[in-house]
From TrEMBL:
InterPro entries: SAICAR_synt/ADE2_N (IPR028923), SAICAR_synth (IPR001636), SAICAR_synthetase_CS (IPR018236). GO terms for molecular function: ATP binding; phosphoribosylaminoimidazolesuccinocarboxamide synthase activity. PROSITE patterns: SAICAR_SYNTHETASE_2. Pathway: Purine metabolism; IMP biosynthesis via de novo pathway; 5-amino-1-(5-phospho-D-ribosyl)imidazole-4-carboxamide from 5-amino-1-(5-phospho-D-ribosyl)imidazole-4-carboxylate: step 1/2. It comes from Microbacterium imperiale. PANTHER family: PHOSPHORIBOSYLAMINOIMIDAZOLE-SUCCINOCARBOXAMIDE SYNTHASE. The keyword Nucleotide-binding applies. The gene is purC. This is Phosphoribosylaminoimidazole-succinocarboxamide synthase. It catalyses: 5-amino-1-(5-phospho-D-ribosyl)imidazole-4-carboxylate + L-aspartate + ATP = (2S)-2-[5-amino-1-(5-phospho-beta-D-ribosyl)imidazole-4-carboxamido]succinate + ADP + phosphate + 2 H(+).
């Protein structure tokens, strides 16, 4: 992994995309601040790929910060508490791709909300007429809008293992009834607000994933990255309305470009192949375009 030497911070963990640091000084570490640095690494099918996408860490961070601000009330809705610590700037070397956050008691649930049918949801629907066990009306096509957004949680597996879709009942068993209901309701609320805002900019927010933790006072708090092109599927709304093939309807501003290339180029055994330069460039371009379209 690519942990950096950052003055005042000590590296503690690297996920597939982000590197986490705590204050080097014991006393400073006691107040529970953390530095989250988004790298340019890109993962698909739970594998980190080579090479990275130049500028991706910065684009993800800027987009997350913009969405955190919208959800803190800039969009006119209620304040969704988030993990940003405020007050302290990240070290200069990573200023544009890092956030100083409050370390939370993370809930081991990936809170997925789907407003449209695609990806693994489409595959399951085609086979069984359900998405994550939730029955849906017959006759839907790949890329169609769902009658209403659905909450389809996944259990967040420890590093190296694959996340697993679970039912709402299983979520209740893992985190308790109150927290499970709060995760579901907050996730659906954020999706609805974000999808409306995206739509006003000509984008469809097809689906997305949130992570939450509890802060020191037990308040459910939005963490990690939010509504980025890594954690979400964004499509061009005009293309979706007029397109006649799935490819035309789902013109992506997200990691789908990488997933589609990898799915065609790799049989999922051994090490994934190197991403070709044109895929890297297209992905970087789409990530930039998304930030410009939403926040520009
Ligand atoms: P994994 O943790 O399995 O490696 P990942 O590949 O998604 O998953 P990254 O997104 O690269 O990991 O790393 C970010 C990590 O930081 C995640 O484990 C996430 O749950 C955790 N995290 C994000 N925000 C906070 C927070 N405020 N407090 C504690 N942990 C956090
Ligand atoms: Mg993650």
């Amino acid at each position: 992994m690519s942990a950096l030497d950052l003055p005042g911070w000590k590296h503690v963990y690297s996920g597939k995309v982000r590197d986490l640091y705590r204050p080097a000084d014991e006393a400073a570490a006691a107040d529970g601040r953390m530095l989250v640095v988004a790298s340019d690494r890109v993962s698909a099918f739970d594998h980190v790929l080579e090479p990275g996408i130049p500028g991706k860490g910065e684009l993800l961070t800027r987009l997350s910060l913009w969405w955190f601000a919208q959800l803190a009330g800039a969009d006119g809705g209620r304040v969704i508490p988030n993990h940003l610590a405020g007050g302290e700037a990240p070290p200069a070397a990573v200023a544009a791709r890092a956030m100083v956050v409050r370390e939370l008691d993370m809930q081991p649930i990936e809170c997925v909300v789907r407003g449209y049918l695609t990806g693994t949801g489409w595959a399951e629907y085609r086979a069984d007429g359900t998405v994550c066990g939730i029955p849906l009306p017959a006759g839907l096509e790949n890329g169609d809008r769902l009658p209403e957004p659905i909450f389809t949680p996944a259990y967040k597996a420890p590093l190296g293992e694959h996340d697993e879709n679970i039912s709402f009942e299983r979520t209740v068993e893992i985190v308790g009834a109150d927290t499970a209901a709060a995760l579901r309701d907050t996730s659906l609320e954020i999706y609805t607000r974000a999808a409306a805002l995206a739509e006003s900019k000509g984008l469809i927010l097809a689906d997305t994933k949130f992570e939450f933790g509890l802060d020191a006072d037990g308040v459910l708090t939005l963490a990690d990255e939010v509504l980025t092109s890594d954690s979400s599927r964004y499509w061009d709304a005009a293309a979706w309305r007029t397109g006649s093939t799935p490819d035309q309807r789902m013109a992506s501003y997200d990691k789908q470009i990488v997933r589609d290339w990898l799915a065609a180029a790799w049989d999922r055994t051994g090490t994934p192949p190197q991403l070709p330069a044109d895929i890297v460039e297209r992905t970087a371009g789409k990530y930039r375009e998304l930030l410009d379209t939403l926040a520009g």
